[in-house]
Design brief:
Layout (H helix, E strand, L loop, with lengths): L1 H7 L2 H8 L3 H15 L4 E4 L7 E4 L1 H35 L2
Helix pairs in contact: 2-3
Length: 93
């Protein structure tokens, strides 16, 4: 959700793309903020675009850490798969 909000600049646009309601996304963000004790979004008020939202520096850092974790898990799962099944798959070719 955070990556989508960051990319689109709006909770509403992110909700539409993710096929979720604005309320559902806002509820999840609010619950996460409460659990972490940190603000994740800054809402832009006014302007010609009518507002929008930006990730706080903390949320940007959090999404980057998640990306790194995801890459690590993906790499390690590929390694485990190769160890478990790689030889068998090469023998059957």
């Amino acid at each position: 959700m955070l990556e989508t909000i960051q990319r689109l600049g709006s909770i509403q646009a992110a909700a539409k793309e993710l096929k979720m309601s604005y309320r559902a996304i806002w509820g999840r963000i609010k619950a996460t903020e409460d659990r972490l004790g940190e603000q994740l979004l800054v809402r832009n008020i006014g302007g010609s675009s009518g507002g929008g939202s930006e990730l706080t520096l903390f949320a940007q850092m959090l999404t980057e850490q998640f990306r790194q974790l995801h890459k690590c898990v993906e790499y390690q799962s590929d390694e485990l798969f190769d160890k478990s099944f790689g030889t068998q798959l090469r023998l059957s070719e």
